[in-house]
Amino acid sequence: MLRLNCPFCGERDHAEFTYGEDASVAWPDFASPDSQAHFDALYLRDNPRGRHLEKWQHIMGCRSWLLVERDTLTHEIFSVRAAADESAGLNKPKSRRGR
Amino acid sequence: MAEMMARYSALSILQQGLTGNRGWQTAWAKPEVKKSYQVIIVGGGGHGLATAYYLAKNHGITDVAVLEKGWIGGGNAGRNTTIIRSNYMIEGNTGFYEKSVQLWEGLSAELNFNVMFSQRGHLSLCFSPAQRDAMARRYNIMRLNGIDAEWLDRDQLQKFVPLLDMQGERRFPILGGYLQRRAGTARHDAVNWGFARAASKLGVDIIENCEVTGFVKKRGRIVGVETSQGEIAAKKVGLAVAGSTSQLAGLAGLGRLPIESHKLQAFVSEPLKPLLDTVVVFGGAGHFYISQSDKGGMVFGGDLDGYNSYAQRGNLPIWQDVSSAAMSIMPALGRVRVLRQWAGIMDMSMDGSPFICKTGIGGLYLNAGWCYGGFKATPASGWCFAHTIAEDAPHELNRLLTLDRFQQGQPIDESGHGPWPRMH
Amino acid sequence: MTGFRLPKGGAIDRRKAVSFRFDGQEMQGFAGDTIASALLASGNRIVGRSFKYHRPRGVMSAGPEEGGALLTLGSGAERTANIKASMVALEPGMELFSQNCWPSRHFDLGAVNDLLHPFIGAGFYYKTFIGPLADTRFWMFCEPFIRKAAGMGRAANLPDPDCYDTAHDFCDLLVVGAGPAGLLAAAEAAEKGFSVLVAEQDHQPGGSLLQSGKPADRRQVASLCKRLDEAGGRLLCQTTAFGLFDHLTTGLLQRHAVSGRQENQPRETLHIIRPRHILLASGAGERGLVFADNDRPGVMTSRAVAAYQGRFAVAAGQQIVLAGTHDGVYDDALQLAAAGLSVTLLDSRTRRSALSEEAEAANIRVLHGRVPCRVIGRGGVAGLETAKASGGWPAGM
User: Which residues of C touch B323 (CB under 8 A)?
Assistant: First the structure.
């Protein structure tokens, strides 16, 4: 069981969360005409064997979206922070896409 | 005489048994790796070994090396739940998987190795009228494609699978099930070793403990690989390393791929006298599939853990999930104990379907994206990948299984989930 | 060599006789016995058959490494296959059955496989069943016979009538194993204020302290348990730590006794523990030595023979040969000799041990530089061939 330290609720089992996706994906603005950028964001992944920045939602708790840095081989968790706290440096959320 | 000794048969077992079993040859040769080959296959799993065999058998290309970083069959080829079926419905998948079943049917004779393909049937249970409708579409497409498919009603189902508890009020009431009789299971080690032995006999070099660490290019074309056993030149290189595809692709300069790695757990129980003679799948509200191996263990599994992972081990929530689904339809399993639990790394693609194709790099060919359906595809994957490499062009059966199908707007999405790898 | 109950000693309660049936035959043990100790005490040599060759099997150990005494418990919907007799406490009314043998465990037609062994070695099925047809028909014709021969016990084919529970828990320290090390560590940690949970897969705590048979050792167990309890620590017996998952999450499976269980109480409880720290104090398992026919009923690990005498007051046989590679085997020999059993000790080392003199003084016949070579006997041990450890001609005993 992965244990995720939700900044609002404390350390919880990963089964309380829904896994989102790779948080490092560079999503273009929804209205952008750059179809290659849209394609890359939708279909291509780094898929690292190692450190991975990813999104989890605490659906059975505070329902916040969290950014988790986790090693995909050892499952060591390096950091957990609220996605809402991210400002520059992180990619804009997709609009009108389902979670 | 030596040739007869080298062939497996009841007679050879008798003769060897009477003379102290000293005459058996090693199943495949372990040569020193050469400095160059015509074709290098990276990955000594079922697909890589099958590809090498068919390169030699179908195309007369024997100057082939299979490079395996560990021991052959130690990756996903040795970790799956051994189910074989061809109940696919989207073009691109349908003919391919059916070809695979047909190859399975003659594989033991072809390889002179009993792969233990047991055509005991594959049964998908239905729990609601809507599910029955959705599956009817799939199974009617099978019939239109000349593939065997039938519906079993409740009575027929209970007779076919006595272990299913269908009495009284159920949490998940069973309406019936769709059956593909020609489907079933095989022994995973047997198909790995069978292909290795047959390929080795035809002259293929199987090199274990040889990890590919880089690629050698000349004017943008692949001309060899760097490995833990030195540099090896090759005219053509095929990647068959599902589980590690992104890493190898990155080394080769293929860039990012439409693949995410997820782990899939599997479980086996203590060995029991025969309890279940077919493959049962619970899809829909739960996700659970089970069969019984010839050694007596119940082999079962369910969903992915659900987050990117390369750890070949799983966590409890899926184990509980799978067990709950099992208990809801086969409550007799409550007193059966799990003996072992493990996981493999799945190449989850963006549409749930695989890739057997050329790449944008000359001399480099890709076999990947098998999600959790790679085992059944072993023979056809080898067949098609060998063709693609030998002819530098896809076979008719893998023509649509390309890397660029997403760019073309042609995903092969059986489950209809869209580009969410973990949902396929 | 047949087992029997010793008149004195053991941690069993001789005031509480426990009746059970094995293959339909009425037998008796005492409260505190495991199924294995009760079977040994009742003189059972053959308790089952091996998986493939159907060789006779007896009790081989006193712990989870048991490979011989795999039995079926109960019948109908409550039938449970493949239980390890050494790991299950004896309870009144238990119905036990041997497995993988027909018509009986003493006379099993499956033993013909043993005669056929040159032809059915490991993986033989890869080398045959291939022809004569180029498809799967011949293999599928043969498969049901193979499947019937394979498997050990027969599982129930009726819905499991019992209920099960899941418990979630947290602690500072999870200790796996309530032997002397685990209990002491747990007690000390609890007294220092840690929240402590101890998981012990045996039905009694104490581990190796139970095996010596000494009342002083049993008192020490009781004292450590009292310290743990008074400091707020918890002890779960019949609880196996079966899995270590990510971030130290641990799965424990607790088995509940049948006697005294109410109707809606669970048969087993799954505990999912999230400890801050884990201490593995599960002890050491003994490995058997390698020699021909070392799987015959009556061949056991040395520690197991001592444990059966010390903990359950069961002699595995009247004449005992212990073979070992280190001083530990002398402790076992001295313990058994003190209980009045005839013991011969094969020490594989050519040099005399510091304990050799004490052993000889206790009437133990000590042979230095000797190793077991081959067991004589089929349904039990009738004799043992030995050899010089440096390599030499076998000399019968």
Answer: none
What is the model's pTM? Answer: 0.94
Q: Rounded distance, CA B415 to CA B57, Å?
A: 35
Contact A44 B257 (CB under 8 A): yes
**Phi/psi at C20 (5° precision):** -150, 170
Name which of A35, A43, A76 to mutate to probe chain B: the one with the most chain B Cβ atoms within 10 A of its Cβ. A43
| Cβ neighbours of residue C148 closer than 8 Å, sequence gap 6 or more | B273, B274
Smallest Cα–Cα separation from C86: which of C63, C113, C114, C67? C63
Q: Which of B8, B117, B294 sits opposite C150 (nearest CB)?
A: B294
Find out whether the peptide bond into B274 is cis, omega within 30 degrees of 0. Answer: no
Please compute the mean of the pLDDT values over residues C270-298 and round it to a whole number.
95
Distance of CA C88 to the CA centre of its chain: 9
HSE-CB of C340 using CA atoms within 13 angstroms: 9
Mutation target for A interface from C166, C246, C273: give the one with most A CBs within 10 A: C246
Paired tokens of C106: 């003493």
Q: Is C306 in a helix, a strand, or coil?
A: helix
B308 touches chain A (CB under 8 A): yes
CB neighbourhood size of C301 (10 A): 21
Measure A88 CA to nearest chain B CA, in Å. 24
ipTM, two decimals, is: 0.93
Chain segment C244-282, per-residue pLDDT in tens: 999 999 999 999 998 888 888 999 999 999 999 999 999
* Widest CA span in chain A: 42
Q: What percent of chain C has pLDDT over 90?
A: 90
d(CA B250, CA C129): 44
Between CA C120 and CA C129, with CA C123 as vertex, the angle to 5 degrees is 75
Instruction: Provide, as residue numbers in chain C, all residues whose Cβ is less than 8 Å from the Cβ of A12.
Output: none
C85, C98, C71, C59: which is closest to C301 by C-alpha?
C59
Task: For residue B199, give the nearest of B74, B363, B1, B58 by alpha carbon.
Answer: B58
